[in-house]
Amino acid sequence: MTSSSPTHSDSSGSSKHDSNQDSWEIVEGLRGVPASMQEPDRQEGFLLKRRKWPMKGWHKRYFVLEKGILKYAKRGPDMKKGKLHGCIDVGLSVMSIKKKAMCIDLDTENNIYHLKVKSPELFEEWVSKMRHHRVFRQNEIAMYPHERHLFNPHASSSPLSVIPSEK
Fold first, then answer.
1. Pairwise CA distance, residues 142 & 109, whole Å
2. Cα separations (Å) of 30 from 27, 95, 125, 135?
3. CATH number of 37-155
4. SS3 of the chain
């Protein structure tokens, strides 16, 4: 016996999708044939990085994005001294953004980095730079696959995809 009235899932499916305006957007990577690209400009500044245990919450960290590699430290001077807290190859990461919340997630094989930007202008600037750096890095890996290992956070013995700083 069939019912002529629509089911709950049929009638509510589209409205739920339409009302979810602040969903995560996965940022596309390199498509097609790699081509030589100009190296993108360096981007640096403070972002908020979410931590879990033992100090839960959002912590201010200084980030530098250069040649498709995102490095971070507690402060700018620490970065100059080589006291890195971490290093992420954005070309090998899955990048998702949430515009309304101004969040950027970078998913490496071993870890997910949750970043937050304080102003809409800075958010757009960081997202734009990260897109360019990702494609640049992916292009570099596609054109010179043997050089991929010059920076490969997944080959590191650390579970956090961090390159140890030189002392």
1. 19
2. 10, 12, 20, 5
3. 2.30.29.30
4. CCCCCCCHHHHHHHHHHHHCCCCCEECCCCCCCCCCCCCCCCEEEEEEEEECCCCCEEEEEEEEEECCEEEEECCHHHHHCCCCCEEEEHHHCEEEEECCCCEEEEECCCCEEEEECCCHHHHHHHHHHHHHHHHHHHHHHHHCHHHHHHCCHHHCCCCCCCCCCCC
Can you tell me the distance from the alpha carbon of 119 to that of 131, in angstroms, rounded to the nearest whole number? Answer: 18
d(CA 63, CA 77): 11
Q: Which tokens belong to 115?
A: 């970043």
> What is the phi/psi pair of residue 23, to 5°?
-90, 165
- What is the residue whose two structure tokens read 């971490």? 86
> What digits encode the pLDDT tens for the residues 64-120?
999 999 999 999 999 999 999 999 999 999 999 999 999 999 999 999 999 999 999
Question: Which residue matches tokens 């590699």?
Answer: 69
Residues 40-80: tens digit of each pLDDT: 999 999 999 999 888 899 999 999 999 999 999 999 999 99
Structural tokens at position 29: 């990577």
Domain ranges in the chain are 37-155
